[in-house]
Known about the structure:
By secondary structure, the chain is of the alpha/beta class. The chain has ten helices and 17 strands.
Amino acid sequence: MSLPQATLAVFLGPNRDFEFRTVPCPAPGPGELLVAVSLATICGSDLHTVEGRRTEPAPSVLGHEAVGRVVAVGPDRDPLLLNRRVTWTLADSCGSCRPCRDWLLPQKCERLFKYGHAALSSGSGLNGCYASHVVLRAGTVVVPVPDSVSDRLAAPANCALATMVAATEPLAQGGETALIQGAGLLGIYGAVLLRELGWKRVLVTDPTPGRRVLAGRFGAEVFAPDELALSPSAVADAVIEVAGTAAVIPQGLRLLRPGGHYAFVGMVHPDTRLDLTGETVVRKCLTLRGTHNYSPRHLQAAVDFLAAHAAEHPWADLVADPLPLARLGEAMQLARSGRWARVGVAP
Ligand SMILES: [Zn+2]
Ligand SMILES: [Zn+2]
């Protein structure tokens, strides 16, 4: 088997240019897969890393939202995966520790490995998706992507969409009114998922007009946060925070009805101290639930969801025309501009 060369966009540290390196692709080891990346989209967490607001090892290859094609299958892995178009869980887990086996939280595995978050010196070094190739490890669940789901639709499935499938799972019985705080990609996916789950009204708040316009095209009723300030209290049966800031929590608590469900999803950084009393949680009989990443079943459900609804929504409006991998720095700038929910790079 002759293996191709891989091109890697190497992250050297915050606010530095990517360095492009060409290395030989390794033959996949036991249980591993070598995947040629077709499209990788830039998740907001990578923008934080590049700007130095969160710390990742360097040198490393960032990027975890992607779709690609299996080009080599290691021993002890299903040989029928060869040439399949796939997405994969953004984390590799062991399957045997307590979080994996007993708590059904493989994303909290004691030996967790996350693509796009590992040093170049770890394993094969092909650990991230801002590259022509990535090596998927033995504990990574792979989900085939049907041809009806384009690369642009599929690439964000293994981070943003699967996370929102996990966050909305407890709301699957449907309901009257939900409020989503934040109209980025997570908020838009959340709105579509809740509508499909039978929620009658999905309100979305965001301070940025352009993001509200986009969310409105996906069936959400959109508001600037202060437009809801004068609303009667307790309008929502459920609230989902995907804004990434604790500043939205007091409004969410005020608008949440007694017995309501508050999902925290976006606040994945330490600067999120809450303005919240225990008394509020007790007296309003609230459920607070955090969601971080997801289980393999949520990724399968995400791909199934896209396949079922590929024609129904203006999905293509979410992802900009891909830039070549060599222009990753420029793609990051475009992602930062907020013009698109996602910007992608293709090798
Ligand atoms: Zn992500
Ligand atoms: Zn484990």
